[in-house]
Design brief:
It is a single chain. With 556 residues, this protein is α/β, with parallel strands linked by helices. Helix content is 56%, strand content 9%. Strand 2, helix 5 and strand 3 form a beta-alpha-beta unit. It starts with 7 loop residues before the first helix and ends in a 9-residue tail after the last helix. 29% of the residues are buried.
């Protein structure tokens, strides 16, 4: 017995222009062309997948061949309308499967043959951008001057790959992503007809996942309805690796509030999860975008700039992420590099209040009653600046890194050896390959490449600027690990692709001018631990150190 079951996207495929959703402007133009009898010999329908391009092409072919169309709508009663599915004069060609010039030549030979019983012979070529250049060239002349009974309708999701010579001979119609509200309304209508039990939140999530494509939305609905009698948000999230808006908002709020601990707790939930990291990043970007509008309107420019930077890095991460390791680790690292860059006054006050409450409890536990907590904090703030001579540790370290970068680039250029480069690249590859995935340094080195080598220094590059900064902040650990695993002490410095390109051009220019690089001495940096020791030596801070764990003191 034949299987009469039809999947939803086939069952609810539009059969008239009025049933096509989300393309009002385009459909109106096509109907007007039919009403005014201004039928072109060639059309190209462009737009994302599942937005109605091929369906509209079939409806257009059916309508122009209808014997009694009314207001651009086929009558549905004539011989052509009743036999649309088996009409020999409507020819569909899948260019993805018929890419060669031989198939196009066969098409050209058949073009000369008149329609069997219709007014027009219509060729619908789907995914036309998949044709080879030779196939396009063969199609060109026929497309320009076809017989009067021929209409070509080309459909593509990648119009940029279609030669301009083809485009210039076609009328172009753009199909846009379907509006979320229209798509939700359509899905609710289908669910009602199919008696599918589903929540509004689940429909909204399906609409988000399908990215404006009706076919994808119906396919997702079809799959979920066959595996579950009742569809709610949790069913959609678990089946399609998505993430709830509640979790996304939680992450974004923790990021904005500079709450590192809470951000870490949330990300730990995604360890070994089936969540699709691309969906995760897209939802993060969407939520960040909404927040950026809010901050721009309220003139909170620091928060706006902070969000803008992280959005660009997350966007780069979608295509450049190495999914051989946990992608959420890299997303987490992108976010935390901006923690404490800036925070609102209210958040700072809140953090101080929480900290004071915690420390006050510690004082009670230790029976320390000598001074109030505020006096202790005031004393710490007054004494430490005198010890540090009003210098900022973070700023000093960044200055040190910048100077170190200049010196190591210079010294590597001074002793660069081409014969060492391939050998150094191989050792770096082995180092990367041997390092355990769970190692905290793995994300920093996995996408880094050695681009210049001397006997003492290697310069590496990384496409991610954030990884370059983190790499240079962990130089001591990386160099120690490299020496242990490879057996050779090498100093490193990381550059972004732009920095490397700039320095390489400058190096070539200097060589042409006869410049000779001289070895420079590397700068030194006083570690934080030494400064803490100085703080300990100061007698005025005995009570402060009794309250605060010195390992957790951060000097700013």
């Amino acid at each position: 017995m034949a299987n009469d079951y039809k999947v939803l996207y086939r069952k609810y495929r539009p059969t008239s222009f009025d049933e096509v959703i989300g393309q009002k402007y385009t459909i109106r133009m096509l109907k007007n062309a039919i009403i005014n009898n201004k039928i072109s010999h060639a059309y190209i329908f462009t737009g994302p997948r599942g937005t109605g391009k091929t369906s509209s092409a079939k409806i257009f072919a059916k309508t122009i061949n209808c014997e009694n169309p009314k207001d651009g709508i086929p009558c549905g009663k004539c011989n052509n309308c009743l036999n649309t599915e088996n009409n020999a004069d409507i020819i569909e060609i899948d260019a993805a499967s018929n890419t060669g010039v031989d198939e196009i030549r066969e098409l050209i030979n058949n073009v000369k043959i008149a329609p069997s019983f219709s007014k027009y012979k219509v060729y619908i070529i789907d995914e036309v951008h998949m044709l080879t250049q030779n196939a396009f060239n063969a199609l060109l002349l026929t497309l320009e001057e076809p017989p009067s009974h021929i209409v070509f309708i080309l459909a593509t999701t990648n119009v940029e790959s279609v030669p301009i010579t083809i485009l210039s001979r076609c009328q172009k119609y753009d199909f846009k992503k379907i509006d979320n509200e229209e798509l939700e309304t359509h899905l609710k209508s289908v669910c009602t007809k199919e008696k599918i039990t589903i929540t509004d939140e689940a429909i909204a999530e399906i609409v988000y996942l399908c990215e404006g494509g009706c076919r994808d939305a119906l396919s997702i609905l079809n799959q979920l309805s066959t595996s579950s009698s009742s569809i709610d948000l949790e069913v959609v999230l678990s089946n399609y690796g998505s993430v709830s808006l509640v979790q996304i908002k939680e992450i974004v709020n923790a990021f904005i509030e500079d709450n590192y601990n809470h951000l870490q707790e949330v990300f730990q939930k995604f360890e070994k999860s089936s969540t699709d990291y691309k969906v995760f990043i897209k939802k993060l970007i969407d939520e960040f975008f909404m927040k950026s509008i809010q901050f721009k309107q309220t003139n909170e420019n620091l928060l706006y700039e902070k969000i803008k930077k992280v959005v660009f890095e997350l966007n780069d991460l979608i295509n450049k992420i190495n999914i051989t390791i946990d992608p959420f680790l890299l997303i987490f690292m992108v976010l935390i590099q901006y923690i404490n860059v800036s925070s609102s006054e209210n958040n700072q006050k809140s953090a101080k209040i929480e900290n004071r409450e915690k420390v006050t409890q510690d004082i009670t536990d230790k029976n320390i009653q000598k001074e109030s907590l505020d006096d202790s904090i005031a004393k710490m703030n007054s004494v430490i600046p005198s010890i540090l001579s009003s210098s900022n540790l973070n700023i000093e370290f960044e200055k040190y890194l910048e100077n170190l970068k200049i010196v190591r680039i210079n010294n590597c250029f001074a002793e660069a050896d081409k014969t060492l480069l391939n050998e150094s690249k191989k050792k770096w590859f082995d180092f990367n390959d041997t390092m355990a995935i769970s190692d905290e340094l793995k994300p920093l080195i996995m996408d880094s490449t050695v681009v210049l080598a001397s006997h003492q220094i290697n310069i590496v590059t990384n496409a991610q600027n954030s990884m370059v900064d983190l790499f240079n902040h962990e130089l001591v650990k990386i160099e120690k690990k490299y020496a242990e695993m490879v057996g050779i002490p090498i100093s490193f410095i990381a550059l972004s692709a732009e920095e490397w390109d700039k320095n390489k051009k400058e190096y070539i220019k200097k060589l042409k001018e006869g410049y000779v690089y001289q070895i420079l001495s590397e700068p030194t940096y006083q570690q934080k631990s030494n400064l803490i020791e100085k703080v300990e030596e100061n007698g005025e801070l005995e009570e402060v150190l009794a309250i605060f764990d010195k390992g957790k003191i951060e000097i700013k």
